[in-house]
Amino acid sequence: MGSLAVIPRDWAYPVVAERRSSLENPQTPLSYPAEWLLDLFNGGRTDSGIRVSELTAFQVSTFLCCVDLIASKIASLPFHIYERSLNQTGRAIHRLAYDHGMYELLHTEPNEEMSRQTFLKAFLCHCLAWGNGYAEIQRDAGNSVVAIWPRNPARTHARRTTVPLRLEPAPWRPFPVSIPAQSLIYLTTDGMDDMEHGDVIASQDGVERVIPLEDMLHVPGLSFDGRIGQSTVWLARQTLGMALVTEKFGAKYFANYARPGGILKLPMNLKPEDREAAKRSWMEAQGGENSHRVAIMPPGFEWQSMSNNPQEAQSTETRAYVRNEIAAIFHVPSRMVGDNSRSSKASTEQENQELLDYTLAPWLSGIKLEWKRKLFAHTLIGRTPRNPFYVDFDVTGMIRGDAASREKFNASGRQWGYLCANDVRALENMNPIDDPSAESFWIPVNMTLTTTPINPNTQDGAGRGDKPEQMQPAVATDVVAKNREAELERVYSPLFLDALGRLLAREKRNSEAFSLCFHAVLMAIRNACQFEAERDFAVADAPTIESGKFVDDYIGGMARRAGSWTPEAADGIATEELARATRAIRIAVYRECATAKAKGGQSDQA
């Protein structure tokens, strides 16, 4: 990037409106520019013999379709400001920041002349065609953002200063700005420098003004230096030139009513003026609307047709090839630009996901990061400089499944407890229910946390059983559960330590030895937990078969991990193993009683 010393100038008049360049006039319309205008806008000849620029490239239907598809889709996505914070467990939570001062500006109206969709669509068109999207940030005296204006990428350029600069206050930036040497700045001749003298607006087109780095939103495309994006049209000019030539050939062919020209043979002894008269007469009789009429020629005249079959020129195959090439440049699925030969309705959902992942996601990420850097400055929070606000696109609607898929997802989320009723209604764009029950989450009655065994009386989805507030707490809370386990450990600690001492005194510590030493004390703990669980679940004579098998299995597990036990560490081993055994046996007993209670409730209902 070249160096440039910039001499700022003062602006003494308010901004009235943007004005277009004098290049845009009826003599040289921008839709069909002249050669010198193509050179001005970096247009260049291709091997096909036609010039291609960012402006003429839009005459290629596939190019226009790709740019319009990407720009329109991104511009139509909901765009929000979010706030990131941490909950009590340290997990990140994200909140829609409707109350942020810039929410309406970014979500609805970046400036007074255009909506957010119009602004983003123009910005993305610049990114996709010119390889650079520029948008100037307008600030007030308090350095707050009041508007964002798109800048013409053909009239905006990045430069690096060689000397320090000072920008004096201007109507769109009412405070001075000091720019150190070797800083990146932007020069533009676009907008915000028109001055008003009475009723006459004096345009200042062609006069460069300086935009500081922090006041320019810049999203480059493919870049070789990380600062300036390369023009997509310039890099793909050969393919676009071929497309323009092919379309021009087809247009000329049908302009002649799909009938190629030929040779009109005249007699040898005609005078030059007679030949010109014969040619003019033939064109009037057979040209334009008269091309399909029967021709009557004087004696000595002969017509020889020159065939030029477009099928032989492979124009159809060439157009299909060019269409796929341009679609590949933008990473757009060819089905979305008119190629229906290799797609089916069954793959539409996957192609939408592919469009999001490979076509839209890079541009979405570039916009989000640039908006975050320039619009939400870092502030000191604690000892860490950060800003909890950021912008993001909502792509939920784009990858929205069909009715059957949404029904399955919503039912699964409701059943397994990660969606409440209002969550489901929000996903379906429905208003929430003003009832506390709509914010409640379900859990399956046969599953719960190990620290909170289930109570079928209060977790019956059909509403059976007494109301929770009319019952004694059927399931112990974490605190109560830990207190009960601690009490069991205190009561059975001497017995468990004695059993461990007898085991460590044995020469053989096989499974039989473990069972002889620990079976009695562990079964006593099981019986104490059984009495407690039957009282909590209000059941009598609950089965004990499964919990008895669990005790035997647990003893086998103790035998497998006892290889490093030593008499010197008996006290520590007893404390650790007793706490572990008490907790495991208590969970097994409660699960068995809960199952018995559930089966009993079903029998009563039957």
Question: What structural class do you assign from the helix and strand content?
Answer: alpha+beta
Number of strand elements: 20
The largest pleated sheet is described as: 4 strands, mixed
| Uncertain runs | 1-32, 193-203, 457-476, 601-606
**What proportion strand?**
5-15%
The overall average pLDDT, rounded, is 77
Specify Rg, calculated over alpha carbons. Answer: 40 Å
Shape: elongated
Question: Strands across the major sheet, in which order?
Answer: 1-8-11-14
Write the layout of secondary structure elements.
Blueprint: E1 3-4, H1 35-40, E2 44-45, E3 51-52, H2 61-76, E4 79-86, E5 92-96, H3 103-107, H4 116-130, E6 132-139, E7 145-151, E8 156-161, E9 165-167, E10 177-179, E11 184-188, E12 195-197, E13 200-202, E14 209-212, E15 216-220, H5 232-235, H6 237-255, E16 262-265, H7 272-286, E17 302-305, H8 315-329, H9 348-375, E18 379-381, E19 384-386, E20 389-393, H10 403-416, H11 421-427, H12 478-504, H13 511-537, H14 545-560, H15 570-605
Parallel strand pairs: 1-8
Antiparallel strand pairs: 2-3, 4-5, 4-20, 6-7, 6-15, 8-11, 9-10, 11-14, 12-13, 16-17, 18-19
Helix pairs in contact: 2-4, 6-8, 12-13, 12-15, 13-14, 13-15, 14-15
What does this structure look like?
The protein is an alpha+beta fold. Among the domains are: 403-470, no CATH class; 478-605, no CATH class. It has 15 helices and 20 strands. The protein has helices at residues 35-40, 61-76, 103-107, 116-130, 232-235, 237-255, 272-286, 315-329, 348-375, 403-416, 421-427, 478-504, 511-537, 545-560, 570-605; strands at 3-4, 44-45, 51-52, 79-86, 92-96, 132-139, 145-151, 156-161, 165-167, 177-179, 184-188, 195-197, 200-202, 209-212, 216-220, 262-265, 302-305, 379-381, 384-386, 389-393. It has a 4-stranded mixed beta sheet, with no helix packed on it. A hairpin with a 2-residue loop joins strand 18 (379-381) and strand 19 (384-386). Helix 2 crosses helix 4, helix 12 (478-504) runs antiparallel to helix 13 (511-537) and helix 14 (545-560) runs antiparallel to helix 15 (570-605). It is elongated.
